[in-house]
Amino acid sequence: MKVLLINGSPNRNGCTNRALAEVADTLKKEGIDTEIFQIGNRPVYGCSGCGACEKTGRCVHDDDAANRILERMKEADGVVIGSPVYYSGANGALCALLDRVFFAGGNELVGKPAAAVVSARRSGTTATFQRLNQYFAIKKMPIVTSQYWNNVHGYTPEDVEQDLEGLQTMRTLGRNMAWMLKLTENGAAAGICFPEAEEPVATDFIR
User: What are phi and psi of 146, to 5 degrees?
Assistant: First the structure.
């Protein structure tokens, strides 16, 4: 089994990476393979609403990280997405990528355990945490919890090292993710699979 951890910060070795590394180290101790994917700091596209991904399963914009993230998410058994807090919300570049990934991902992401991780100097963590969890909820991805909201605090990775509660929360998240993955694997072996969805019903507020 393997968990993909997405570093949604433009800083490869910043606070978000430190939090994800704590989760990854715990997963490895539980016998789970990991990969940390860094989105980088190059410009990215927002979703243009063209609808082409509904036919191809890929975004038409292929010169940034979106399709690479999608392929890795499809291959992984679980997903952890981390973001720094920018203006009390998730990194805009990360959200631009995730909008396209989750539009194009279709049903191939359904049932994969997922979790959000947030780093902040001070505040904005819960709004960012909620924003990231919305992606998982709409794709029917079971959301893995910890002992607290999955946050670390600090301005530098060295600051995060001093956030003992935050790092403990990351370790608990890693153990809980490993537990859910093992339950999923054992359940599938026993013939207990993720429930099949009904045909979607789409309505708006006028009909």
Answer: -125, -145
